[in-house]
Amino acid sequence: MLKELQxxxxxxxxxxxxxxxxxxxxxxxxxxxxxxxxxGDYIKSMPLLISGAIKILREDGDGDELLLYYLERGExxxxxxxxxxxxxxxEIRAIAETDTKLIMIPVAKMEEWTAKYKSxxxxxxxxxxxxxxxxxxxxxxxxxxxxxERLIAYLKEKARVNKSNSIHNTHQEIAYxxxxxxxxxxxLLKKLERMGKIELHRNxxxxxxx
Amino acid sequence: MLKELQxxxxxxxxxxxxxxxxxxxxxxxxxxxxxxxxxGDYIKSMPLLISGAIKILREDGDGDELLLYYLERGExxxxxxxxxxxxxxxEIRAIAETDTKLIMIPVAKMEEWTAKYKSxxxxxxxxxxxxxxxxxxxxxxxxxxxxxERLIAYLKEKARVNKSNSIHNTHQEIAYxxxxxxxxxxxLLKKLERMGKIELHRNxxxxxxx
DNA sequence: CGGGCTTTGTAACCTAAGTCACTGTAGAAT
DNA sequence: ATTCTACAGTGACTTAGGTTACAAAGCCCG
Lengths: 210, 210
What we know:
The structure is a homodimer. By secondary structure, chain A is α+β, with helices and mostly antiparallel strands. Helices cover 48% and strands 24% of the residues of chain A. Chain A is built from 8 helices and 10 strands. Chain A has helices at 2-9, 15-24, 78-86, 107-116, 118-144, 147-162, 171-178, 182-194; strands at residues 26-30, 35-37, 45-51, 53-59, 65-72, 93-96, 100-106, 166-167, 198-201, 204-207. In chain A, strands 2-6-4-5 form a 4-stranded antiparallel β-sheet. A 3-stranded antiparallel β-sheet of chain A has the order 1-7-3.
């Protein structure tokens, strides 16, 4: 585990902290689609991402979903932290977007390290910072953009975290994450194809130029 | 200042911390409508609310506004904290919703206290926690609710923070904060009046039963 | 009192997006 | 090869909400 840890966090954590993480953390590998957290769960450990990506989703009372953002290498889930400290339930769902490696830290260590290690405090504050800004961005897109722009932004972001210009999802799946309907997404995708920006296939699409 | 401090924060901060706040903080009173922070500002001090309420607004590139949430007694602005630590610009605008009393703390103290006082750490984490949840709620409302529900929620919340069932705003002002148009808001308000839930007047309205 | 603001009410219209219903089709399964 | 099924395409229609335009109050102030 030490090797992975070094690569992703070596530059930001102090040596003492690295050693502690190495001792109490457990390396975990999960496949694409693996559900790491469900709404209403109590959380007992906190993830540090080594590789891959995790998508964070929000759901309303009627089961309608909405993609909030992705977590990537070197990041952690601020929601988890707030849950742990506040001893409250998860407000979100977390699903592996790609095959993902992460280190799980027992919650108990969190507060201890916050008092003990400056680099940990900075990391935690930085996570909150990043997350708040991601949430603001998501909110902007929803409040100020129409569906066509949101779709384009979604495709770009998805291509980025998956490091591929092929997006392997059905229109229905895309519709879920954008909280829209299949018909609307099909319509807009077709329009993008006619503009020469993407190429549609069964079960996947290719981004040509967005 | 010590008196105000005691009333709002006496129960949560350690004595040593209270003394420090008393020494480096400055009491500030601002009238309703006072702009405390503008998008793009660099922040050099952090507010602790004593009384009143502050509304936090987001704006897109075209000048369209959106109300995010209110800060109230005993709370602070997480955005400010992230800005200070990350040394970045403000992403939001802050305007006093009512006459407001607050204590301003120089940014420099923040990190020092985080290492030194457990109660301060808890306060800061708790603020992040509350703010993340408020943002999620706002996002829910926008993503999953229609304008009529959003309007009702808005009126209720506004009545709550103002501690009054009279809301002194023009339809235009309400429209701005909900990122809608005056005509739409007038239409929906009229509908609420016809349902006997509110009473409309020039420049203000009264909530009867929501 | 009588202009000259600002605010509110309303009708007519437009557009984005959601819904329903149906067809076409690629690919897996038999 | 034929059938079956999930996925995709499309027309027709509905609705929420935005836009334009204008009339009617309310209100300030000379």
